[in-house]
Amino acid sequence: GYIGKYRKLHLFDTEKNCFQQGDLPLQVFHIAGAKVGVMICFDWRFPETARRLSLMGADLIAHPSNLVLTHCPQAMITRCLENRIFAITSDRVGTEERLEGEETLNFMGQSQVVDPNGNILYRASMTDEEVHVVHLDLDMARNKSLNSRNHIFNDRRIDLYHFPE
Q1: What's the rounded mean pLDDT across residues 37-56?
Q2: Secondary structure element (H or E) that encloses residue 107, with its range
Q3: pLDDT tens by residue, 82-137
Q4: Torsion sign, CA atoms 150, 154, 156, 159
Q5: Residue 15: how many CA atoms within 13 Å on its side-chain side?
Q6: Domains of the chain: residue spans and CATH
């Protein structure tokens, strides 16, 4: 049944010509014992999105995408390391013809599952549609300690982080 709603926050390129950016706050959905945050496609580019979901208790980020920027899979590894969280990127393969005079979109595939230590548990091909099952130990994402003296949230210096508007 219905679990909840998320609207993409960050529009990419020509999406700004035909869509409105999402206006709902980030949420963590409880699904079969897992706490799941969602980032749609270009939301990956903004590290604050993954950080906020992690601070809200997400164990994993579901990341449905139509990716054309080749550095995204590597960036998602970084998001997992920064937040000690799992990420599941489900990307599209193939091409899409655009309007006359516009470039053809080439989707990069490489759907992947990444663990909180930045390990790629599975990465799909660039060209084929695939289905793969990966078992996750969610306790890995619930432990935010790097060692006995370092905790990724408690060690933050938010008193010194200033973000100009």
Answers
A1: 97
A2: strand 105-108
A3: 999 999 999 999 999 887 777 888 999 999 999 999 999 999 999 999 999 999 99
A4: negative
A5: 16
A6: 13-142 (3.60.110.10)
| Three-class secondary structure of residue 87 per DSSP | strand
pLDDT of residue 30: 98
What are the helix and strand counts (H, E) for the chain? 3, 8
Burial of 43 per CB tally in 10 Å (0-12, 13-18, 19+): buried
CB 81 within 8 A of CB 118: yes
| Pick from 40, 141, 137: nearest CA to 92 | 40
Burial status of residue 164 (CB atoms within 10 A of its CB: 0-12, 13-18, 19 or more):
exposed
Query: What pairs with residue 151 in β-bridges?
Result: 145
